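Milestone M4 deliverable, item 7.
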Amino acid sequence: MKSSVLTRYRVMAYVTAVMLLILCACMVAKYGFGTGKDLTLVVSQIHGVLYIIYLVFAFDLGSKAKWRFGKLLWVLVSGTIPTAAFFVERKVVRETAPLVAGDAPEMAKA
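Output delivered:
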């Protein structure tokens, strides 16, 4: 597996998680304090588009890493739970790093 597959997933996991936290803050402002209605709409749409990109990259990584369906589903859903994507991303990197490292060509020994 190429390292770019893991890198794409990592970037989108962080971006999606941060946008979800921003969306949560906007929702608190909208429903708790009655302000930021337009901002909440824009942030929710941006998060939705980024989450779709996250789904594509996570599915790509999962199919190349040959994950079980349950694990793949958990990784896909983690983008909808605030802060979960941070923890899931860490675990995924730990588990898939050997697959990326194993793909490197062997060095010739002298």
